[in-house]
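Handout, section 3.2

Students often ask what a structure token actually looks like in practice. Rather than define it abstractly, here is a full record for SAM-dependent methyltransferase. The first block is the sequence as you would receive it.
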Amino acid sequence: MTATLYRGSRPDARGRARDWAEIQERMLVPLYDAVYDRLEVGAGTRLLGLACGSGLALMLASARGAAVTGHDRDGERLALARERLAARERDRPPERRTRLLAGELRLADLRGRPATPAPVGGAAVPAPPPRGRTDTPARGYDVVTAFEPAAPAGELGPALAAVARGSRPGSAVVLAGWGPPERCATSRVLGIATRLAEPRAGAAPAPRLSGRDDLEDLARTAGLRPDGSGRVACPFGYPDLPSAVRGLLSTGLFDAAVAATDSQQVDKELAEALHPYRRPDGSVRMENVFRYLIARV
């Protein structure tokens, strides 16, 4: 079983991005839908997705009529987002087309005139669409989302602060993270990452957004005002054990453990930790609850 799981893993960046897009990203659809419903995202909404991954959340917002822009530091995930969005984008008017930004998020990116357009898949990435005259960052966005619960708070903070400094008053910024550990079966599996990384790497993985206080603290540090929150059930379901291992590895949460040990050991221990969640048909299901915070500029 261990050998099969190891061969089923995709250690290269492109393969892991595909595992995220094909296996893991869909697990958060209930979170995306709940937030979009609450904020009434639709025609006329201009939305910026931070850590947008391979674009599923952007596609859902776009299907509701929103004009969306995505930003992610992972060029492989953005390249996949471009592939997934390419066909539908051809039939959309220019002002409604999805825009993708790579690399570090700069104030210039948010103003709509990046100093150096970042290449994704060999093409220059357009900047966010302006709404009339945009003399300050993010002036054109009504909603900014940071859905990715695996993103370290230290990486999100500067981008959120840039958004807060330039957005118009009342703009919504959404942060998301894991719910209470006792209501997240996956938290017990993720404990493997910490256990394997700490003894040999000398430090725990970067802190992740989890409790309500963590989300509110990050928002206030960025100059945002908390204005409501919610919880959403996001079960993680996989057709088999190898898919579960690949999906969880694609989150990046096990990177420190792999660096401290090796891929085979992490695969083996992850598979063992998943056994209690296997069903008679071989599928794997873990019940989870995610939190989201709505903050205002």
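Discussion prompt for tutorial groups: The first strand starts at residue 46 and ends at 50. How would you have guessed this from the sequence alone?
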